[in-house]
Write a structure and sequence with these properties.
270 residues, alpha+beta, 6 helices
Length: 270
């Protein structure tokens, strides 16, 4: 598959059935032993058994507390009033922030896994910020964000409040505030506006195709010039090929859910 670039025309169709992707360990994939099919509307292309195995080694699920790697605590900003706190392995750099679609962000500290986890819980309780934000809320504000200076100020102010708190674990090294911004990386300035009714992909079907010009990409979302938003998590597990004349099945889309609606995304578990 070729690398995607903004301004590029993309076109693909789904073939056959959507199958479980299996389990990832140490950068390698173990195929699903039963090659189970998975529903088209779920963001996680795994059967229940493979998902359970993945969770059994999940830092996010606190099932791998002995992980010896250095971790970092971060603040991630997605829109006005939408800031979360989280942790990521230091070796991953900012990849976790890119995966989540964080527009503006800053590191808070670094140290052993359990120290960063305790810090995360401290900040959530003291600052009143969550560790998860439903993806529909992130998507709903992405095309109309305040200026970069306003975004940076909100993150910096929250960073200062966090740094002033008592109770940080002694083994956690504080990190000075350096605000980073992903708006240019995501191509947010080129977005055509908020997706309208029927312009968000909700499911791929066998024979269904997507065609359009790519103008932006944030987290798992591909933004097309005509306003269509393609959640790439729904493509995982499908065989994707170039569309042909036989591809006549329409791709189901739906209006964005309300900000208060429950999200199917397991944010924080990528």
């Amino acid at each position: 598959m070729s690398e995607l670039a903004y301004g590029q025309r993309i076109a693909f169709a789904a073939r056959g059935q959507r199958h479980c992707l299996g389990v990832w360990r140490a950068g390698k994939r173990t195929p699903c032993p039963t090659a189970d099919t998975v529903p088209g509307r779920t963001g996680n292309a795994q059967c229940p058994e493979c998902a359970r195995l993945d969770r059994s080694f999940s830092v996010a699920a606190d099932t791998n507390a002995a992980d010896p790697r250095t971790y970092r605590v971060y603040l991630a900003w997605f829109g006005p009033g939408m800031v979360k706190v989280g942790i990521t392995a230091e070796e991953r750099g900012s990849a976790r922030l890119l995966e989540q679609g964080a527009v503006t962000w800053a590191w808070l500290g670094r140290g052993p896994l359990m120290a960063t986890r305790r810090t995360e819980e401290l900040l959530r309780a003291a600052l009143g910020v969550p560790d998860r934000i439903p993806y529909a809320r992130k998507r709903a504000v992405r095309a109309h964000l305040p200026a970069a200076s306003d975004r940076a100020r909100e993150v910096a102010e929250l960073h200062a409040r966090a740094a002033a708190l008592a109770g940080w674990p002694e083994s956690l090294e504080r990190v000075e505030c350096e605000v980073a911004d992903h708006a240019a990386v995501f191509g947010l300035d080129a977005l055509p506006g908020l997706p309208g009714p029927g312009r968000v992909l909700t499911e791929m079907l066998s024979g269904g195709s997507v065609v359009g010009r790519l103008v932006g990409a944030a987290g798992p979302d591909l933004h097309l010039a005509d306003g269509l938003v393609v959640d790439t998590r729904l493509l995982a597990g499908w065989e994707l090929t170039a569309p042909g004349d036989e591809d006549v099945t329409s791709v189901p889309t739906a209006q964005l859910p309300a900000a208060s609606a429950a999200s199917a995304e397991q944010d924080g578990l990528f």
